[in-house]
Write a structure and sequence with these properties.
Layout lengths: L2 H14 L11 H15 L4 H14 L7 H12 L9 H15 L4 H7 L2 H9 L2 H7 L5 H23 L2 H12 L21
């Protein structure tokens, strides 16, 4: 996305959330900082994606204006509707119990192929399909353990998936000890925010 498109979005938010979102800001420096803050997080997305995400946010959360991070989250939700990523841990556990009931202990491999990846991952972590199939139906420890693992796993995947590509590159560079343009400090005489290109 280009700066001119960010300006259109900020103007739209300013008119839609009058009194709660001021754009342009009081000074040119504040306005430039706001534009840069939004551009840093949204530069990897198209204007169309951002506009759709803003519309969804306005409809689902009409009281307060969005942050750029919330728009990134909405874009992620629009793109990533993979099976198993939109269910709760309790719903995933129900899928496991239904698979045990339908396929039984002896057809565990067939049952696993029918389950979404996140469900299979959590199932492996608690000991696999066989352990669940051989356990008591009311084993609350096993179900709670599965639900916690499933919820943690899906939350971690959602967070990782949500990061814009340029931010993922910055994180990778930081972890490897390499510097990237986005990680370098701006010159001391420059008090404006520097964007990664």
């Amino acid at each position: 996305m280009k700066k001119s498109e960010i300006i259109k979005i900020l103007s739209w938010l300013g008119s839609s959330y009058s009194g709660k979102f001021k754009y342009p800001c009081g000074t040119e420096a504040e306005t430039a900082l706001l534009e840069s803050s939004w551009l840093i997080l949204l530069q990897d997305f198209s204007y169309r994606e951002a506009c759709i995400a803003v519309k969804v946010f306005m409809v689902t959360s009409p009281t307060w204006p969005p942050t750029p991070g919330e728009i990134v989250q909405e874009i992620d939700k629009l793109h990533n509707q993979e099976p198993g990523s939109c269910i709760t841990g309790a719903e995933a556990w129900r899928l496991v119990l239904e698979a045990v009931s339908r396929y039984g202990f002896h057809r565990g491999g067939e049952a696993l192929r029918q389950l979404p990846d996140p469900v299979r991952y959590a199932l492996e972590c608690v000991g696999g399909f066989d352990r669940v199939a051989l356990s008591d139906e009311g084993d609350s420890y096993l179900s709670h353990q599965f639900i916690k693992i499933f919820d943690d796993f899906t939350a971690r995947r959602r967070k990782e998936r949500m990061l814009p590509p340029s931010l993922k590159e910055e994180i990778k560079a930081l972890q490897s000890g390499n510097s990237s343009p986005a990680l370098k400090e701006p010159p001391a005489d420059n008090d404006r925010l520097c964007l990664a290109h």
